[in-house]
Write a structure and sequence with these properties.
By secondary structure, the chain is an alpha+beta fold. The protein has 9 helices and 16 strands.
Length: 363
């Protein structure tokens, strides 16, 4: 088969998979019936798309040092490379059909290195997506969207929707640290070493950010990572030569901790402090606040356990019973007043006649 025909078949078949992958959210766990349908659709599309890859427009190839642009086309692969890329790409297709996305990705990457066919960027992106690596998937699909010609992208249904869905699964993080050479990890995955000057794409959600360096106390924080958003973090690492770690605990769960007048979370908590004496206060509703003075030395990991005394219930307070006593005494006095009333005795006024200083009146 002539070299041009090999290149044509490689480009056409790769984009045929772009059409099929556009209907699948994951290649893992596919039922045998779905896999059979995938093979049939792939073969059918491959027989139709035999035109040369549109990303390979005629004209001089860009120089190796030139930055790629949407209009720039990769240099055509020679006959041997094109034929080899076709074989490798087919292997990747088969791996995707069988749910082995990592193996498919390796094959697509190898084929892309030989041909620089933009259609393979799309296939690489879908392999990353099937692996659950959404930041890498988004990077590849965006690159396909950037370098692919309008004609090539028109042959991929739902490209804009796919990009929007991937962006909702990805967040970005910007990290500024005052110490160079510190290792940065998110969800136990290394992001790099400070200074990290670029914004890093990560999976959206929440994750534990850890920044460590020998001779410094580690920084650790649970970080919210908004979908299609940006999380910015400024980190100060404290040297063990001038700071110590204080652990505060209490038998009263949920007690609030204040150190030197600043909130420090709830027990149990750990805080890195400058060497010296610090005021630690605990409080919680229903308990009397407690304050302790703690000396922290450089390089020390110190633990303190501060107890809290429960406040007396209202029925135990002296003023409560004093108030009740007044009411009781008042009630008793009222009862006495009501029950001590006596029947009227016999009077001295003759019946039928009132003499109350109103002379001349008689009944």
């Amino acid at each position: 088969m002539p070299p041009a025909a090999n290149a044509s078949r490689a480009g056409g078949f790769a984009i045929s998979h772009a059409r099929v992958f556009g209907t699948l959210t994951s290649m893992t766990g596919l039922r045998p019936r779905m896999l059979h349908r995938f093979r049939v659709i792939t073969i059918a599309l491959a027989s139709l798309l035999t035109m040369p890859a549109v990303a390979r427009a005629d004209g001089p190839a860009p120089s190796p040092s030139a930055a790629p642009s949407p209009s720039a086309a990769p240099a055509p692969a020679d006959g041997a490379d094109a034929e080899r890329a076709t074989t490798i790409r087919r292997r990747g297709d088969e791996e995707m059909v069988n749910g082995r996305a990592a193996e498919a990705l390796a094959a697509y990457s190898e084929a892309y290195a030989l041909t620089k066919d933009p259609a393979l960027l799309y296939n690489k992106g879908r392999a990353f997506e099937a692996m659950g690596d959404y930041p890498s998937a988004l990077e590849q699909i965006e690159e396909f969207d950037r370098v692919g010609t309008p004609e090539l992208k028109a042959r991929v249904p739902g490209l804009a929707r796919l990009l929007a869905e991937l962006r909702q699964k990805v967040s970005q993080i910007a990290i500024v640290c005052d110490v160079d050479g510190a290792t940065v990890r998110l969800r136990d995955r290394k992001l790099g070493v400070t200074p990290i000057t670029n914004v890093v794409r990560v999976h959206a959600g929440t994750g534990t950010l850890e920044i460590t360096k020998e001779g410094y106390y580690p920084y650790k924080r649970e970080l919210p990572l908004p979908p299609a958003g940006l999380a910015s973090v400024e980190v100060h690492l404290s040297s063990r030569a001038s700071s110590g770690l204080l652990r505060v605990a209490s038998s009263v769960a949920g007690a609030r901790v204040t150190i030197d007048g600043k909130p420090a979370g709830t027990v149990p908590t750990e805080v890195v402090l400058q060497a010296g004496t610090h005021s630690v206060q605990l409080d919680r509703d229903g308990y009397k606040p407690a304050t302790s003075s703690v000396l922290v030395t450089a390089g020390e990991n110190k633990s303190v356990d501060i107890g809290l005394e429960a406040e007396a219930p209202i029925t135990k307070k002296w003023w409560f019973w004093t108030g009740i006593g007044v009411v009781v005494l008042g009630g008793t006095a009222t009862v006495i007043a009501l029950t001590s009333e006596r029947d009227a005795g016999s009077g001295t006024i003759a019946p039928g006649r009132i003499t109350a200083g109103l002379s001349g009146l008689s009944f």
